[in-house]
Amino acid sequence: MEDDAPVIYGLEFQARALTSQTAESDAIRFLVGTQSLKFDNQIHIIDFDDENNIISKSVLQHEAGEIWHISASPADKAVLTTCYNINWSFGALGVQNASESRVVTSSAVWRMPPEWESGSHESPDDPHNSHNPQSLDLLCHLDNSAHGNASCVLWEPMGDGKRVISLADNHALLWDLTESSTQATISSSATLEGKGQLKFTSGKWSPHHNCTQLATANDTAIRGWDLRTMKQIYCIENAHGQLVRDLDFNPNKQYYLASCGDDCKVKFWDVRNISEPVKTLEEHSHWVWSVRYNHSHDQLVLTGSSDSRVILSNMVSISSEPFGHLVDDDDLSDGEDNHNDEKTKEPLQDSIISMYEEHEDSVYAIEWSSADPWLFASLSYDGRLVINRVPRALKYRILL
Amino acid sequence: MDGDVSNADTTPPDSDPARKRRVHGMLKLYYGLNEEGKTVDQAESLDPCDINGPHFDPEVYLNKLRRECSLGELMDQESCMVKQIRSLDSDMQTLVYENYNKFISATDTIRKMKNDFKKMEDEMDCLTTNMAAITVFSARISGTLQDQHAQITKLSGVHTLLRKLQFLFELPARLNKCLELQAYAQAVTSHRRARCVLQQYSHMPSFRGIQDDCHAIMDKLAQELRQKFRDGGSSAKDLSECVELLLQLDEPAEELCDKFLTHARSRLEADLLGLEAELRPVLSIGPTSVVVPSTGPAGRLSATPTAGSPIDPTSPGNPFLSPSSRTDILEFIDRGCNEFVSSLCLVIASYQELFVNRPQESNLAYKNIPQMAVGKLHAFVDSLAARYFSLVERRIQEEKSVGDNSLLVRALDRFHRRLQAVAKLLPGSAVPSQGTEIVVRAARERVKQYLAALQSFYLDSLTDVRQALAAPRLGGSSAGGGSHLGVPAAGKDALASLPELLSSLSASILNQIKTVLASVHLFTAKDITFSNKPYFKGEFCSQGVRESLVVNFIKFVCQSSRQFCESAVDRGGSTPPALLLLLSRLCLDYETSTISYILTLTDEQFLVQHHSPVTAVTALCGEAREAAQKLLNHYVKVQGLIISQMLRKSVETRDWVNTIEPRNVRAVMKRVVEDTTSIDVQVGLLYEEGVRKAHSSDSSKRTFSVYSSSRQQSRYTPSYTPSAPMDTNLMSNIHKLFSERIDIFSPVEFNKVSVLTGIIKISLKTFLECVRLRTFGRYGLQQIQVDCHYLQMYLWRFVSDENLVHFLLDEIVGSTAHRCLDPAPMEQSVIEVICERG
Asked: What SUPFAM superfamilies does the database record attribute to this sequence (chain A) (predicted)?
């Protein structure tokens, strides 16, 4: 029905950073951070009303700089981190030969102003409500100027919002936050040593093993770290032919990891046997920037690429439910149980479910909603946010 | 009258017909109508006007005539009738006369006969009396002679008996004498004659004595015969005589067979050992010179692998050189045939002569001999043949060099031919079929070896090509210090040879295939005995040569080509791109012509009748095309990657915020253009130009400014109007109208323009993405502007649609402007000046 049609929202700035509000489990809410060098940057809070298919938004000012990465606390709805550029310019811009400006990427923890929440709840339908945007309150800097440019900040998955990891150049820093998140101290750190200028491009905190593992990507390698000792536990050299852009852990299978990169491929790894990928997808026609497992149904894998496409794949064979959903006894009492049985017996194949082509520019970020497992958002560089759903037929097939 | 009927029926058909007719007439009279004559009578009687019919009614006839005919006709009819009547009258008269004459002459004859018979009766009476007289005389004579006759008979009986007795009494002496003279045959005959009698009268002491003596002598004789038989040195004729005699002496035939065969076996095994000895020296002669003690089964077992080692798959070109071997296979087989097979045939023949084909005597004891003997012979031949075969197979397996197939084929042919003799001698034997199997196995093995040889040849020629590609390049790069800028000439030399390399590669492969086909073809030549076996007529051609040799080789070519794509993707491309290009063209050529040519050639040479399903030409062509496509895509990817890496490095390593005002085009861009040009040349050598969209007249001069596209401008307006979803939809539609989606890593077509378009797309897209990750100062932007204009000037000519380059470069400059802290674009005229300065 029309429900399946994508909902498109346009930002007036270019944007790369997208996250779902992890702590929010009722409303479908995404946070988008903009990139603009000339104007104040913003964080758009996008609420999606599933019933009425309506998007409502609020805007918060992020004056510190253009946002490269954004991440929401898993414990507190109002808390988030960003990685942003600060342009230090010593001397006047525009004066020739005197430009001493420097671009540094930093990261910080922020709190959304409380008024926003009340305001949004009072009049969610009015898009013109946010004319005078409020600013984020700075809680603390994840001050890592000594360690170089931050590339991303990761919250402890399903944690209490007290621990974050920031990746800066070749350092991985584990921070402890105070109760109010107003202060952050480095509890441990790891440094990637090697020839040349090594730089973490991306990372993911594993939700498994009691949250003691981290996976990072630098150049063509994927590394696993033990956070207790801050030592490397595995390293997949040449995981991709070119740069590795993103990683994600299978939320249900502890050793499974998905990665994507500039060789246009998406690879699935079993970290116990890193010599060969378990599976490789080669559907995109340009670099793959982002890969995400669905939080509840790990056969659904979402990838976004600079060929402007978003692809939703059904990787049944390597999911935690390779034989389809197991029918519970309760379901069997249902009148349609025979029908269900037939459905589950159908062999499921790995397949591309659909290719979303609503974007006109490179898609740098994709994210599943934390509230509705059948819904996801993708963000392209031109500032277009598209909200899509898993096709209904597939949804029922997985559920029934 | 009934009696008459039966008479008439029983009368034989050749009896007097006149009489029969008369009887008929009478019957007809009586019954009116006879059963059998009914139809005829009816047909006759129906018409009363039929003048010849029995029911002719003159009145009716006359009336009819009068009614129907004219006067003239009546006159004619009348005259005609008169004429007929007259002729009938005269006929009748003649008949009557004739009959009368015959009757008179018959009467005369009967009268004469009466006289003759009377005379004969008298003579017969006379004869009877004479005969009676003779009988009387004869009885009288026999009566007188009877006594003497009985006496004579008795006397002659006594005489015979006496002679027999004398023979018996003389027998021992005679036998002894025979023994002395070695006239065994005579002795045996004599003894046989006496044996029964002696047996019968053995209860009498004198006869007993004789019998015992005879037995003793005969035992001795048998002993001697056996000895002679055992000695073995005697000729076949002697042997057979021995056997014959022994058989007559009631020696058990089975034992004799066994003895004969063991004797033959020892001689044949000597032949086999001689053959085996020829196999053995391989160990010490093997080029690897692993000195293994050549005795013992262990040493023999290792013979095959050692022999295999000379053909090292890594040594190029070797498979087609014959390794030096002390005796070639033909000699070996010859020797085997001449020594072993021929003596085997002799043995079989003489054995059959002795035991199987003996004239069947009534003696019951001999009845079962042939069956038994044939069974033994089969077992004997089988066991020896098995050993022979294993030796031959070992020798064949050593024949690994694929250089000269004719030798092997001739050897196999001889081997097979000689076995036919055995087949003729021993019809039920499994030996010939086993021999055929060995030939079939050898042929199969041969096909496999040829496939392996072809494959290694292919890989070797690829290595050669690789070296040919690398050699001039190495020289060039050493001169130019790693930079391609200074060595376009050297590069061109390498490139110019591409088509020659391709043609020489494909020609040499084709030649090799042809050579191999010709070699394999020997197996099916007409003068080869086994070529008319069903295997060589059907399966060998279709499954063996076509499928497992030719088709597999083509598949191997495709597959190994594809492997170049797969292995090199992740490991950074160790394959030189030119090789990829060359292989892609090779596969494409295969698809268009070579495959069908090769297969047609094969089919023609081997007259393949496809009993079993075979791989279709189209399937192979599809595979080749797929491989070609993959290789070309990979080529584009690799080349695109090389240029991309240059661009990426150049963007990533520079501090774009604090750069100086651009004065030159960056060297990287020049290098990009140069590399693209050389790629263009390279591809142009192997692929056609392809179609491109019409150029605008001044493509290189096209001005493009940072804010040229209106959509960028509109999005850039510093209005804070919140964007509603509707608004962006409209925007996106405009956007869609403006440009089509570009697939960056999309499959390319088999032409130069498409390949170049692919490479440039990949490069420029990388440029775009890298730019978006950086922040620029004013001069950074201006440098990018200059660079893009430079690329614009040179790259448009390579691609199918110049708008693509325009679009991507616009995007790059636009994105740079977005990422610029102080977007103050450079004057277009200045840019042009800088670019033209180079």
From this structure: Putative isomerase YbhE (SSF101908)
